[in-house]
Amino acid sequence: MLLFIILFLFILNFSFQYNCDHDNIQIQNYLQNLYEQSEKHAPKQTSRISEAKENPQPIRITIDYSRIEQTNDLTQSQIKIIKKLIGLSSDYFSQMLKITPLKGNNKYPKYLSGECNGIIIPENDKQIGIPNSDLHIYIFYMNDNKDDSRANANACAFQEITYRPIFGRIQINITNMVFQINDHKLFRQNLESFIHETLHILGFSKSQFQYWIDPSTGKTYKKGNNQIQKTVNVRGKETIMLFSQNILDVTRKHFKCQNAEGITLENESKSQSQIGSHWDKSLLSNELMTNSAFGLVRVFSIFTIALLKDTGYYQEVNQNLSSELQWGKGKGCEFLTQVCYSQYSFPEFSTENQKYICTFDRHGIGYSRISSTTDNCYVVDAYLTRICIDQSNQANENAVKTMQYYGFDSRCFTSTSTQPKYQTIYKDQRSRCHKFKCDENTITVFIPQIQTQITCTQEDKGKALDINKDDPKMGQITCPNDYNDFCNYSKPCRDNCSSNGICVRGFCICIKGFGGENCSQNCPFGVIFNSDCVSQCPEGLFQGPDNACRKQCPSTYYNSNGKCLICNSQCLECNGGDPNQCTACHFVDVLMENQCVLCNGDVCYKDIEYEILIKQQNLIIIQFQSIIYNLQKYMDNIVVLIEDFTYFEIERTIIDNKQIQLKFNFTRNPPLISTRVDIYFNKNNYLRIKDNKKFIYNIFTYEYEQNQIVNIQNYQKAIIALSIIAFIFTIVIFFYGQLQFIDGIIEKYQLVYMMKLISIKQNLYMYVFIYIYIQQSFQSRNIL
């Protein structure tokens, strides 16, 4: 009997564990070969920096379902569910990501083999291509009971030059991925799986890190990817650490660890699978891009948003479509580096032999177990029959006897609530699921069975309160220690959006044709008001993302002509769609003059308007048009470049809260004028200075150390080289008028930047002519 109970509990906890198989050897070998083939045939790479100036549009994702439509292994209802799942996933990314659209049809490159890891590419996709598509995904399946994964995915082809994925494939293992009509919880889990796999196509893949775009050059890192990743030893295991700029910023801010070098990826698996292309589960637990799930709410967090930004493929990544992650938040460097092996005890981890205790996110009741994917730390996994947010568990007999409540608005409390006659049976179980409501300074707990509510005030934190003062045998409820954490754990949506939407920050974004708080109401051509489908909301109400009339727009949305529109990606809350209309910011940024700006420690950076003033021949004044916060630390990170000078900076002084004075010692000293001075703010990718780069095949180089140029080499050779270039350009313009060709050459070899740096003044008419042409041509396109 005991063996049966243990086996039953095992099934309850692992029956819907999700494993991703992206890093298996077959996929990684395919991807490596794909990159090599793409490099051989792609034209020589040029910078993508200018592309960001183009007007980005939502990414267009198209799907090929033909391989699942032509099988008898799936029923028509299952195929319909799969199409709905993938359609929702694609719509989600179309709202999140903006790119410069492909011009013309999306064609599969002819130089590739025509086979993508199990997919034979249709000839039509190579010859004609896919219309209105920026990413085309093939869906197919396997039926393998020896493979414990539910799905796998990879990119199939990349855009020339930019290396953004333009074709991909997702393979479903129908042995492990179940599709059932009206099972909304299962639908949500499957939706999370498809979003997870799509992210592997979009750039979250260890094989693709080297083909992310370096923001300082606009080109792929390639062998220089040691600028964003390295291998470190974590408790005896070689582990990939990512430290690209946005990931580093988020890591430091989330964990409150300013010394963080980056964040490590998953390093544990029963095979080579799942290593290197997923977040470390001990650090980010229920993040959507960890390698496995155990059924509670998974979070598409700011970490994955940061990764998408750092790929460089997407001009805009709207983090308002992410949700908040609480695991490890604010726990410091000790948590980041030591997890459960720290001298401190973190609530994210449990100890051995604990039963019937709350999961970290309070979504369920479970028991402690050790897991290799969490660095062999003990964590709490919920029993499927005791997940608080699952309404179906209300039917369990123990829910009545212990006065529990199951639903999306339920959480796990330390509680001994029990009907008096069952006290003996449940005396050793001290966790219960209860309905709750958070207000500004209180948490109210509801006991529907006896029509009672208990209010936890600020003074009650950590205290045990009687459920019924007249009958102590009914037990007690202990108020949480931290109300802010308790009320902000990842929020589920009612009925999992009824399989008609996606849950973001606790509210549903419904697909077209459905609406209401849980997306359950059919409304093909209108909006839901008082359970009716109407043409528009009454005056004073707003159409929300759930296609229902609301008194106010949810967080991350603003009202525009009676509709709730999503805020600019830089704003958490806003009163308009522009980046300078923010009223609140995501946790990485701070609000300054209605803009959300990045902070490193207490130093903040944004695009700032300023004026250069020349006080004397060795003194420069930077005069800002508005007050600068933390000006002292801001000043320490300014880079100054002065054309045609070799110099050392002597000192910097704050004159007032809007002016900085810089004093120099010049070794070459032409007349100093303001147009010769360029200012850069060199933190967090705001500096686009090309330090230690070589121009025109080693003719001209300079060294850059400690925020200043210390040496310029081959100056005379550069003068000769530019004069020759000017002569050639003049001949081409005079005889052929090939301005477009010259534009390409100038941009490709960054000649404008070089000319701008050294500003050579020689008595060469042809050089002056071409220099003026270059300046005017590029200024007209906002490149200079």
From TrEMBL:
Cofactor(s) needed by this chain: Zn(2+)
Domain of life: Eukaryota
Cofactor binding mode and count: Binds 1 zinc ion per subunit.
Entry GO CC: cytoplasm; membrane
Keywords: Hydrolase, Membrane, Metal-binding, Metalloprotease, Oxidoreductase, Protease, Signal, Transmembrane, Transmembrane helix, Zinc
Residues that bind Zn(2+): H196, H200, H278
Residues that span the membrane, as ranges: 718-739, 751-774
GO BP: any one term: proteolysis
Pfam families per record: Peptidase_M8
First and last residue of the signal peptide: 1-17
Positions annotated as active site in the UniProt record: E197
A GO term for molecular function: metal ion binding
Protein name, per record: Leishmanolysin family protein, putative
